[in-house]
Specification:
The complex is a heterotrimer of chains A (233), B (248) and C (638). The relative contact order of chain A is 0.12. Chain A has 9 helices and no strands. Chain A is elongated, with a radius of gyration of 20 Å. Chain A has 233 residues and is an all-alpha fold. With 248 residues, chain B is of the alpha+beta class. Chain B folds into 2 domains: 109 residues, Beta-grasp domain (Ubiquitin-like (UB roll), Roll); 129 residues, Fumarate Reductase Iron-sulfur Protein, Chain B, domain 2 (Orthogonal Bundle). In chain B, the strands form 2 sheets. In chain B, strands 2-1-5-3-4 form a 5-stranded mixed β-sheet. In chain B, strand 1 and strand 2 form a beta hairpin. In chain B, helix 6 crosses helix 8. Among the domains of chain C are: 135 residues, Succinate dehydrogenase/fumarate reductase flavoprotein, catalytic domain (Flavocytochrome C3, Chain A, domain 1, Alpha-Beta Complex); 129 residues, Fumarate reductase/succinate dehydrogenase flavoprotein-like, C-terminal domain (Methane Monooxygenase Hydroxylase, Chain G, domain 1, Up-down Bundle). In chain C, helix 3 runs parallel beside helix 6, helix 4 crosses helix 5 and helix 14 runs antiparallel to helix 15. The longest helix of chain C has 25 residues. Chain C is globular and about 75 Å long. The two termini of chain C are 41 Å apart. The chains are: A mainly alpha (233), B alpha+beta (248), C alpha+beta (638). The interface between B and C is large, with 80 and 83 residues.
Chain lengths: 233, 248, 638
């Protein structure tokens, strides 16, 4: 086996892959959130933003492929590590106990997989349009003839079940990140008494920001703060 | 006090093993946990039954022999305490206690509660040293070492190699042990020459021995009888990355 | 029996240099043709194994633990002495030599002690190079502390875990050699006998503690570094597994056993709490730097310690020995504790204890400073006793800790069996009748790093490569058969008492009659009781299971069987030595004030015993001790 491949099998470098892809995915999640929050400004702004993204063309596809690669690497590596870790403990304790490991840290694989399934669902919903084809962005257009992403989102979230699934998924993501963020720093070897309080604080703070940021949209729609543009039924 | 003990019994490495329940009627609160097991063994021998094999030697918390998981916690409920230093005053009449060996693929059970920690030996042999041939050393005071540096190195060097970190980790990861050894030498000026090679070799050996990876549960830190902090794992990760990036 | 110590001629300061020049060398290319067996991997055995492998010899190391780094050297807390004079307080090689000879109450061999002092400085250099994290001052230079029996600060330390750090140092060097393929390790393997062929030590017979397999191992010489026999008292600060078996079996094969009655009772241990007790825990002697030892003045004073006013306390060491105070050597501090307890002034529910009080030190230096110095010891004390020593004075009592006696060795550390070398606590040579604190680590490492690497080569060069043999040699088969026979006998007794209970009873006899104070009547009584107990053992011991197993009952019984024979030798030696010196205090030989009275006219010698049969008294040979440099005086620490 070639040396780089051999090195990638090391537990530490596998973890580094997890951390590095994790950083990229968190940055994406933050950027995506900032984009989505523009829905509060109004239909014009939101659809304009969506159109600009679409107009990137091959650039958009490059970003999508890159993100897909990160997701795949993140998942494959985690499954590889899971296998390694299960093999390392063939016989379990009869009496199971923990002292300080958090629930979040012990359920990373579960929360991660559930987030993955959510992402698939989310793509089917808002990117590919198989969940609600009648209100999909290509089907409806706004006054300026742009795909009406704004209305699509509102139609979607007016369904209480869809909103609930997004809500749960975002809480899971927050839960995942509470452990993921400080863990990332630890794996990358960033640890200093002066930055440690910051690092340990960053997990919960980032989680709260992301969860609140994302779920504010379905909640606002359900509560009627964000409504369909006039003239649309 | 009266106690009920559930103890893992396994004849040898090939045996399946199972939990067996014993009752002890007269346990004094002044006894250490291992003295309580001594009493059980004396009773078993008197009844011509096979005594429970468990590892122990110094019984003062420094040799690192003792290796019991008590109620699911390596070395038992007291923080910063090896199980040989755990005293029965922390238990009360009628308690049930589960006693199991340290669990890991890299620590196969030899008998009952005794495991083979030879994997740790091989990790050390792969690089846990400074190559200083006897007789080649310069005067001890020719290398001044800052008090803080020396203290940090000591915090890592305090590791007794008991394996509780592995036993406590859900992945049976040996990261805390290896990190302690790597950081002890890596924090001293004498250890710089071989620093990169050391971390590369020791981590490779650690993986080869079948320990799991670190998922930052930090259970290892919680059970470590010498309270070795997980910051040394971060340091080892850093050293390792640097070594991977710069070695040929 | 020939007890030629082979001490080099010339002035004491030049003996070792001269000897190193005079001894024969082995060509580097030829070293790999020689194989050495090392039993025990503590400071002495571990450092010897590493160093001999570095030189190119083939090394096979045997130890009963699962890892070489678990040997009991690891438990040494306080420190290691070295004549570095980093403190500029007047230390020198000569002063360390002088203090050690005086501390040993003039029963050690001058030339050996001088060499020990000479190489002490190199030990510190070596350990620092290996990465031992000794305590440092703010400027980055090494710190020292003072220890009992010395008026200079020459003790290097690594918190309260000096032994651990030094052992990890030696172990790391050893591990490096194992990784390089120069040392073969035999963990969980116990030596059961010595193979002597043509009068030379050629190998050992071992039992694998996991599989029970008995087998022979052959080499060109054998080194024993198997520690001391303090567990003869059952309760001691030694690890549970420490035993006399290897040394005693070598004695039975013809190695002389020297000064077995010289045992050290350490003054600062945690007192016994009850019958279930399996071992005693040492509290480092360094605590005596800042702690003050006292008992109530009156035997009836049963108040809590903090309620007893200064005027009703007797700081007996400071009163009796004003110049050394709480830092008197160990034997004196222990005996003084026994005296006050015998007077009925002992504290705690057993009446066997004295207070070690840090109140004044905490007031003077602050709690933080005390915590920095002794934090881990205080925690350990609290874990064991449930009492907080920052608030309530510690309770301490003496306990068996170290044995100065051991197999007789010459200047080259070779026993009376050619090819059998003995290092560390297992030999007798450097500490006389009492060892000073922080000198055991020094001696173990001196023997392993800086003495045996020279003298072993000399043995090989002088003797020439012995005739090659293998484990099919009739002598190997004969000894293996003997070992198997003994194991089978043990397993077939099927009696009613456990080996541990018999060991405990032996310990009581020894502590009572051959402990801190001895007298003829008591020793005679012990001499009666021990053979009876031994007989009971061989008729009534109950060992479950079989040999081909990880059999902890059998393992323990084998060790107890040897203690039951060895203890008799120890008592005989104590009986024969009609004087009080160091750790050996015969009540018949004391001043009116209770101080030891040495008899230099009749007992300024090493008593080396030759085995003649289990039920036949051994024969004593004398090696006269010649003092050319130190004048014999009455030790005074007043």
């Amino acid at each position: 086996m070639s040396k780089p491949l051999q090195l990638l099998q090391s537990t530490i470098l596998s973890k580094v892959v997890m951390a590095a892809t994790g950083v990229i995915l968190i940055l994406f999640v933050l950027g995506h959130m900032l984009g989505n929050l523009q829905i509060f400004i109004g239909q014009d702004q939101f659809n304009d933003y969506a159109e600009k993204l679409q107009s990137l063309g091959p650039g958009l596809w490059a970003i999508r492929l890159f993100l897909l690669l990160c997701v795949v690497l993140h998942i494959i590596t985690s499954l590889y590590l899971k296998k390694l870790n299960s093999d390392a403990r063939p016989v379990q304790y009869v009496y199971q106990n923990t002292v300080q490991a958090t629930l979040a840290s012990r359920t990373m694989l579960i929360s991660g997989l559930m987030i993955f399934f959510f992402v698939v669902y989310h793509l089917l919903h808002f990117t590919i349009g198989t969940i609600e084809p009648s209100t999909f962005k290509g089907t409806i257009v706004d006054y300026a003839g742009r795909p009406d992403v704004y209305s699509m989102v509102i139609y979607g979230f007016q369904n209480i079940f869809i909103s609930a699934s997004y809500l749960i998924a975002m809480v899971l993501l927050g839960f995942h990140l509470i452990h993921a963020v400080p863990s990332m720093f630890q794996t990358l070897g960033i640890n200093h008494p002066k930055c440690n309080p910051l690092i340990h604080g960053l997990g919960p703070v980032l989680s709260v920001i992301i969860v609140v940021g994302y779920i504010s949209i379905p909640i606002a729609i359900l509560a009627g703060f964000v409504t369909l543009p006039k003239g649309v039924m | 006090m009266k106690l009920t003990l559930h103890i893992w019994r396994q004849k040898n490495v090939h045996d399946q093993g199972r939990m067996v329940t014993y009752k002890l009627d007269d346990v004094s609160p002044d006894m250490s946990f291992l003295e309580m097991l001594d009493v059980l063994n004396e009773e078993l021998i008197s009844k011509r039954e096979d005594p429970v094999a468990f590892e122990h030697d110094c019984r003062e918390g420094i040799c690192g022999c003792c290796s019991l998981t008590v109620d699911g916690i390596a070395h038992g409920p007291e923080r910063a305490t090896t199980v040989c230093q755990l005293h029965m005053r922390h238990y009360s009449d009628g308690d049930e206690i589960y006693i199991e060996p340290f669990r890991a693929r890299a620590f196969p059970v030899i008998k009952d509660l005794v495991v083979d920690r030879g994997s740790f030996e091989r990790v050390i042999q792969s690089g846990g040293f400074i190559s200083a041939r006897t007789g080649s050393a310069p005067d001890a005071n020719s290398i001044p070492i800052g008090k803080d540096e020396a203290e940090t190195a000591f915090d890592a060097a305090a590791c007794i190699g008991c394996g509780a970190c592995v036993a406590a980790c859900k992945n049976s990861s040996a990261m805390l042990f290896v990190a302690a050894k790597v950081s002890h030498l890596g924090n001293l000026p004498q250890g710089q020459v071989e620093r990169q090679e050391r971390v590369l070799n020791m981590v490779a050996k650690m993986d080869e021995e079948g320990f799991g990876g670190c998922t930052n549960y930090y259970e290892c830190e919680a059970v470590c009888p010498k309270q070795i902090p997980v910051k040394f794992i971060a340091q080892m990760n850093r050293d390792y990355l640097k070594a991977v990036a710069t070695s040929d | 029996m020939n007890l030629d110590a082979k001490i080099p001629s010339g002035p004491i300061a030049e003996k070792w240099d001269k000897h190193r020049f005079d001894i024969k060398l082995i060509n580097p290319a030829n070293k790999r043709k020689y194989k050495v067996i090392i039993v025990g991997t503590g400071l002495a055995g571990g450092s010897a194994a590493a160093t001999l492998a570095e030189l190119g010899y083939q090394v096979e190391a045997f130890f009963y633990q699962d890892s070489a780094r678990r040997a009991h050297s690891i438990a040494a807390q306080g420190g290691i002495n070295a004549a570095k004079n980093y403190q500029n307080d007047g230390d020198s090689v000569y002063r360390l030599f002088y203090d050690t000879v005086k501390g040993g109450d003039y029963r050690s061999r001058e030339a050996n002690v001088y060499r020990l002092s000479q190489v002490s400085a190199s030990i510190i250099d070596q350990c620092v190079a290996q990465g031992v994290p000794f305590a440092r001052e703010y400027g980055g230079y090494l710190d020292n502390r003072s220890f009992g029996g010395a008026q200079v600060s020459r003790t290097f330390y690594a918190r309260g875990q000096t032994g651990q750090q030094l052992l990890l140092g030696a172990y790391s060097s050893l591990s490096r050699q194992v990784g390089l393929g120069n040392v073969r390790m035999h963990p969980r393997t116990e030596m059961h006998d010595l193979i002597v062929i043509d009068g030379k030590a050629r190998g050992i017979v071992t039992r694998n503690l996991v599989t029970g397999k008995v087998e022979s191992h052959i080499a060109d010489s054998v080194i024993l570094a198997t520690g001391g026999y303090g567990n003869v008292f059952y309760l001691s600060t030694n690890a549970i597994g420490c035993n006399v078996t290897a040394a005693y079996r070598a004695y039975k094969r013809g190695a002389a056993f020297a000064n077995p009655c010289f045992t050290q009772i350490h003054p600062t241990c945690i007192p016994v709490a009850g019958d279930h007790q399996s071992k005693l825990t040492l509290m480092s002697e360094s605590l005596r730097n800042d702690g003050r030892i006292w008992v109530p003045k009156s035997a009836d004073d049963k108040r809590a310690p903090n309620d007893i006013p200064e005027s009703d306390r007797d700081y007996y060491l400071e009163r009796k020995y004003p110049s050394f105070g709480n830092l008197t050597p160990r034997d004196i501090a222990s005996r003084s504790a026994k005296q006050v307890c015998d007077e009925g002034r002992g504290i705690g529910h057993t009446g066997y204890g004295v207070y070690l009080d840090f109140k004044d030190a905490i007031n003077r230096l602050g709690k933080d400073k005390i915590e920095e110095r002794y934090g881990n010891l205080f925690e350990m004390y609290e874990r064991i006793t449930g009492e907080n020593p920052y608030e309530v004075p510690m309770r301490i009592y003496p306990a068996s800790h170290y044995t100065m006696g051991g197999l007789w060795v010459d200047y080259n550390l070779m026993s009376t069996i050619p090819g059998l070398h003995v290092l560390g606590e297992a030999n007798f040579s450097d500490h006389g009748a009492n060892r000073l604190g922080a000198s055991a680590l020094m001696q173990g490492l001196a023997d392993g790093y800086f003495v045996i690497p020279y003298t072993l080569g000399h043995y090989y060069a002088a003797e020439g490569k012995p005739e090659p043999i293998d484990t099919d040699h009739p002598e190997c088969k004969r000894v293996e058969a003997e070992v198997n026979e003994k194991l089978n006998k043990l397993l077939s007794i099927n009696g009613n008492r456990t080996a541990v209970s018999i060991h405990r009873e032996l310990g009581n006899i020894m502590w009572e009659h051959c402990g801190m104070a001895r007298n003829e009547a008591g020793l005679m009584k012990a001499l009666e009781r021990i053979p009876e107990l031994r007989q009971e053992f061989w008729e009534n011991v109950n060992i479950t299971g079989e040999n081909e197993d990880y059999n902890i009952a059998l393992e323990r019984a084998g060790r107890v069987a040897d203690f039951l024979e060895f203890s008799e030798l120890m008592v005989r030696d104590a009986l024969e030595r009609k004087e009080s010196c160091g750790g050996h205090f015969r009540e018949e030989y004391q001043t009116e004030e209770g101080e030891a009275v040495r008899n230099d006219d009749d007992y300024c010698h090493v008593s080396a015993w030759e085995f003649k049969g289990v039920d036949t008294p051994p024969v004593m040979h004398k090696e006269p001790l010649v003092y050319e440099n130190v004048k014999l005086t009455t030790r005074s620490y007043k």
